[in-house]
Specification:
Blueprint (H helix, E strand, L loop, with lengths): L12 E3 L4 H11 L3 E4 L3 H9 L7 E4 L4 H4 L2 E5 L5 E6 L4 H6 L1 H6 L1 H8 L4 H4 L4 H6 L6 H6 L3 E5 L4 E5 H10 L7 E7 L10 E10 L10 E10 L4 E10 L2 E5 L1 H7 L6 H14 L10 H20 L3
Parallel strand pairs: 1-3, 2-3
Antiparallel strand pairs: 4-5, 5-8, 6-7, 6-8, 9-10, 10-11, 11-12
Helix pairs in contact: 11-12, 12-13
Organism: Paenibacillus sp. BIHB 4019
Keywords: FAD, Flavoprotein, Oxidoreductase
GO molecular function: FAD binding; oxidoreductase activity
Length: 305
């Protein structure tokens, strides 16, 4: 497929590949002048703000059938269902899916807090993930999501958390196509004497793409004696790449909830969460907001009878 990459039209040339392999081939040929696009909502925001240049070529992946299916379920080795969400699934589709809301409630809540309805009807989950600061990421990190990529040769999986770390230093992923987000089964069975805590919080304005001050996702299991059986914490916000708070998790897991533990957790968040500050909210303010959100939820669990 011959093309002149030096041509810079006023409006991008739009390519419509029929499958993932063809899309990756186009990207390899076009290089940095070719950009994958599905909903395009975030890209348009970047172009209008001047934070990214408009490329000469757009590779429209919205017509690839394997990426259009919002939710696919498959059985795991433990007779539970693995959930695969197409990268081109609309945020509104993910939000309204009954299986997602039942088994992955944090993700449903995250979808409700992203932009306005008109944007959610155009924007895709894949785009939110690939922005590396999307509000869906803390929830997906807590669920230990996997990413399904296609590199032109074939498909392969990669842990979301691993990709986020890799993407900071290595931009090779931009030549790959994100096909889907994979969620492992979540054990929602009611266990006698145990309380399950699943909470997602976003502090900040929701409209359009206004960055949040702090975004927190918590998934925990607590015994009747207030011992923390399991704990997963993830935090992000603004232009900060979300991360899992592994140090705080280690402090909390196996410990009994009391005021001393809450103070220790608060201090850990301040020490290990380093958000990007801006003119609207400083690093310190974002740190304290995230720490307060986490500790307040744990305090509520302490009050349960």
């Amino acid at each position: 497929m011959a093309m002149n990459k030096q041509t810079k039209p006023e409006s991008p040339i739009v390519w419509q590949p029929s499958n993932a392999a063809e899309a990756c081939t186009l990207k390899q040929q076009l290089g940095e002048d070719g950009v994958f696009v599905a909903g395009g909502t975030l890209l348009r925001t970047w172009w209008e703000a001047g934070t990214a240049r408009m490329p000469g070529h757009l590779i429209d992946i919205s017509g690839i059938s394997s990426m259009q299916t919002p939710i696919t379920l498959a059985s795991s080795s433990h007779d539970r269902q693995i959930c695969q969400i197409g990268a081109a699934a609309l945020l509104s589709e993910v939000r309204n899916d009954s299986y997602i809301s039942t088994h992955y409630s944090l993700l449903t809540t995250a979808m409700k807090n992203i932009a306005a309805p008109s944007i959610r009807n155009l924007a895709t989950l894949g785009g939110n993930v690939l922005s590396r600061v999307g509000d869906a990421l803390p929830a997906l990190i807590v669920y230990e999501a996997m990413l399904l990529w296609h590199d032109g040769q074939g498909a392969f999986e990669q842990p979301l958390a691993e990709w986020l770390l890799e993407a900071q230093a290595n931009h090779a992923w931009k030549n790959r196509l994100l096909l889907a987000i994979i969620l492992s089964p979540v054990d929602l069975s009611k266990q006698e004497g145990k309380y399950r805590l699943d909470v997602y919080h976003k502090v900040g304005r929701r409209e359009v793409f206004t960055p949040s001050i702090a975004t927190v996702a918590i998934s925990a299991v607590v015994s009747a004696e207030r011992h923390i059986v399991d704990m997963r914490l993830a935090v992000g916000g603004g232009q900060t790449m979300p991360k899992r708070l592994e140090h705080a998790e280690r402090l909390l897991k196996g410990s009994k909830l009391d005021h001393s533990l809450l103070q220790t957790c608060y201090t850990s968040v301040l020490e290990h969460f380093h958000p990007v500050g801006d003119v609207f909210a400083s690093e310190s303010y974002r740190q304290k907001t995230a720490a307060n959100l986490i500790v307040s939820e744990l305090w509520k669990v302490m009050q349960l009878k």
